[in-house]
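Posting for a labmate who doesn't have an account.
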Amino acid sequence: MNSYNNSKNPFKQLLNWYFGRRSLPYWCILLLDCAIIFCSAVLVYAMFYGTLSTLENFHQLSITMMLYMLISIMSFKIFSTYSGIVRYSSFVDLQRVAMANFLAMIVVLFFHYVFASTPSQTFVHLTSKQIICIYSIATLIMWGVRVIVKTLYDISTTDGRAKRVLIYGVQDGGVGLAKNIRSQHPSQFLLKGFIAHDRQYKHHMLMGEKVFNVDDNLNDILKKFSIDAVLISPLRNEEFRQDTQLQDILIDAGVRIYMVEGAKEWNSNYKFSKADLREVSVEDLLPREEISVDMISVGRQLTGKRILITGSAGSIGSEMVRQIAGYAPAAMMLIDQAETPQHDIRLLMSRQWPNIQCQTVVTSICNQTRMENIFSAFRPDYVFHAAAYKHVPMMEDNPSEAVLNNIYGTKIIADLSLKYQTKKFVMVSTDKAVNPTNVMGCSKRICEIYVQSLNNSQNKPELKPRQAGTQFVTTRFGNVLGSNGSVIPLFQQQIQKGGPVTVTHPDIIRYFMLIPEACKLVLEAGTKGRGGEIFVFDMGKPVRIADLARRMIKLSGAKGVEIKFTGLRAGEKLYEEVLSEEENTKPSFHEKIRIAQVREYDYAQVCHDIDELIEISRHYDDMATVRKMKEIVPEYISNNSIYTQIDDENQDASKRIK
């Protein structure tokens, strides 16, 4: 419809024809500016002496102005006023015009005072006042021409489908973003105002548009100005994430929200492209604090080292591959049993880091012979152990596999790290290991126990601490956004199919962290840990999953999509913890990383219990396997699971003892 209207508008057709051609050559702009000076002189002379006198002295006036224009041309040359493209004129261009005319006026005034007393029949003697008026009027006309041409160009290049927008944030970020969207051609956004938290900007005008306060009735403002979208200033991303009330207002009003792609570093000279602004996803709006990590010191420890990563094709493992590869390690050994994702990692490494010696191996960490061969040949300096079965319902149905992969696999990798004198072993654990209510969480808690007890077993009197062996470090954190099998991709699929969106319980909450941020903390904790620590990450504020689902539905613009509560799954908690009731923490080298003070176990007893558990699991007796797991981790109390009968048996037995 808009393109049809434009084709019927003669004025728009004329503008499109003119601006569709190449820009005017520089000599045309130069001649135009000279003509403006000449016309300004004629106008000023007529204002002072009348039209008749102007006509009588027109010849002498013309010769005089030719001399003035020669001076102006030299001044234009100095400030390059004619080298710009008029349709793209900016404040800088107007400033150059003013400076060029001011310089020319000073030179003309100088010649005026030098030759004022010299009689001449060829030139017209102008007064200082007249010369100042000529160049002042000429400057205003040159400004006006450039502003009019730019305005007409903006009109001709405005897409009829352009979104009417407000910008969240003023000062440098908001103003810079506004300038950038106004300089886009064709225009994708039409600026209609700004939103600010600071009340001092209320009722102010910025770049010709009104500044609204967040306390104003934004619903009415959005409707009054038919706002389609809000653009977030790159300097106000974190502030906007914390303002869930404003987010809800915008989402409920059906207004799209755009942020700068990729968290680009802001500077006043940066020019945004259309691709830099993207519509937000629900991950962008989750409240979280920016995490600062000392990656320089991390890089110093990893550069030139031999790095082994298990689970390299998974969500956490693959991101660790990317981050570690950026520090130019001497060699990388990447292990995963998922063939297709591992092939993707292989292609990634060959494409982005072809100079790094990298081996991608498809195998299971439970294959002890294969792992022995790999460690013997590769001799890693650092091992990052991210391989694990992690889906709670799957492991609830397959406890023997959880034991064999998670516990036995971890034991193999940890033992080989010690045998081949790996400098550091870093294990990725989960908050589900705290007061576990499911098989998966308990399996990871047993992994933590083994790794920590193995580390402590090295502190023998005849050996210097941390010198004879490997430093074993554990990192514990919650859900990461966008991981394989996480709730957000599932919700997106359900919304695309028209619903319903399935949530297990109205009150269920979870902690979330971005994958890159989690991996940075893992790397810092792993490289700076001294061995034996369980590092707990500050996950920020918990998120109610039902609220997350509602927000995703609104952001998608889908109508009629319902939320269906299905009940807690086997082994699932309403909320996750990062510490048990018996655990305390102490500070570490990073404000977002705490060190859990946990109970220490005897290494010999742990080995005996785990060997017995592994042997039981090989018979695939689910009840017997889980019973032994509960014996090792007494705080493991099953929830909404068939294994609750074991808890009942243990409780009855304790009562009989009493």
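Reply:
Got it, the structure tokens are right above this. The two ends are 84 Å apart (CA to CA).
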